[in-house]
Design goal:
By secondary structure, the chain is an alpha/beta fold. It has helices spanning 36-44, 86-102, 121-132, 149-166, 184-196; strands at residues 6-12, 25-30, 62-67, 71-75, 106-114, 137-142, 173-175.
């Protein structure tokens, strides 16, 4: 898929108030500082589309972007903020779970994971919860340019071992780098394939 246009549509703190549309939606989520905004901007070839920040937890709303006039990219609040209080964390969690559980036209969730880190319980818990809810998802490893080939292979193997405990069949995985433009075609093609599924 070639992404020809990407435009911001709206932000909401309540899934029930999100735009009413029959068009398919694809959500992106991950821990704070996983590089979500940078990946979205690289995928859409627009450096100013999603707001990037050196401060983790910048995304605190459900952000809708219309892509190619025929599907929505949804930038969700992340999880695992280190510098927000318990009430704020619960609020963000409520926003996310309500959207994921209630959004009928959600076709897939891309769960972003920083490849440089050892498997984190919070990531594994979210992956398991998503699977238990019957929500289609794809795991996306980010910042792969920060590791050499050997370290990257070790990191992916470590995660696959953890996922083996949770799933009989490993989930789909896409390896990406926003900076080096790695895996962007794979992401776009995965979305196109899901859109074209009957």
């Amino acid at each position: 898929m070639l992404i020809k246009s990407a435009e911001f549509v709206e932000s909401n703190s309540d899934a029930s108030k999100c735009i009413n549309t029959p068009l398919p939606e694809f959500a992106f989520i991950g821990r704070s500082n996983v590089g979500k905004s940078s990946l979205i901007n690289a995928l859409c070839n627009n450096a100013k589309l999603a707001k990037t920040s050196s401060t983790p937890g910048k995304t605190q709303l459900i952000n809708h972007f219309i892509i190619n006039k025929n599907w929505y990219l949804v930038d969700l609040p992340g999880y695992g903020y280190a510098k927000v209080n318990k009430i704020a964390k619960e609020k963000f969690q409520s926003i996310v779970t309500h959207y994921l559980e209630k959004r009928d036209n959600l076709r897939c969730v891309f769960i972003l994971i920083d490849c440089r880190l050892a498997p984190q319980p919070i990531d594994l818990d979210f992956i398991e919860w998503t699977a238990q809810q019957g929500i289609p998802f794809i795991i996306v490893f980010t910042k792969t340019d920060k590791l050499g080939k050997v370290k990257l292979a070790e990191s992916l193997t470590g995660y696959q071992r953890q996922l083996d405990y949770l799933f009989e069949e490993l989930p789909n995985i896409i390896v990406t780098s926003s900076e080096k433009k790695i895996g962007l075609t794979d992401l776009a093609d995965a979305i196109e394939q899901i859109i074209n599924q009957k």
